[in-house]
Write a structure and sequence with these properties.
six-stranded mixed sheet; single chain; 6 strands; elongated; alpha/beta
Length: 170
């Protein structure tokens, strides 16, 4: 079966609270690359268009979310005291904060991305999300398949299961 694969680069910032002696406790950023693999749910039009759907149709919703919501978002744990600061002093910034139940690691981000991509695709019915790969640095990446996700009973928050532009449940 033919699969579609596409990638998108974005910038982000986060910090990790679980390792207080680590350098990731300090807010910092990365230029990351997310790659996704889609499996068609409809047969290809062999001899005609020779595709299930145009790449633009397959990737449009996902790329729009990455470009308009995820790019330059600040990723925080729901337990991070910085979240309280933003609630009190800069509430207009809350829609640009991606929240996580626990630390916003690359692993957690991959799970959130695959859940969000699945929600986007379910509404369309043409493709299913098969895999997501998040490259945090040139030497570090995390990948996850739909089969892996089926055994994970965790989500960064309800936002990841909604087919909307949300990054949090605030």
């Amino acid at each position: 079966m033919v699969r579609l694969e596409f990638s998108r680069r974005y910038s982000m910032a986060h910090r990790l609270l679980s390792d207080p002696s680590g350098k990731c406790l300090t807010p910092h950023g990365h230029d990351e690359l997310v790659s996704v693999t889609l499996r068609p749910l409809q047969p290809m039009d062999f001899g005609g268009s020779n595709m299930t759907a145009a790449f633009e149709h397959a990737k449009g919703r996902w790329h729009g979310w990455i470009d308009n919501a995820v790019d330059h978002a600040f990723q925080l744990s729901l337990a991070d005291p910085l979240l309280g600061y933003f609630r009190e002093h800069e509430p207009d910034r809350l829609p640009r904060i991606m929240t996580f139940d626990g630390d916003p690691t690359t692993e957690a981000l991959a799970i959130g991305f695959l859940r969000k991509l699945t929600a986007f695709l379910e509404a369309d019915g043409l493709f299913a999300a098969e895999a997501v790969r998040v490259q945090e640095t040139p030497t570090n990446a995390c990948s996850l398949t739909a089969a892996d996700l089926a055994s994970i009973d965790w989500s960064p928050g309800a936002w990841a299961r909604r087919a909307d532009d949300s990054l949090n449940d605030l």
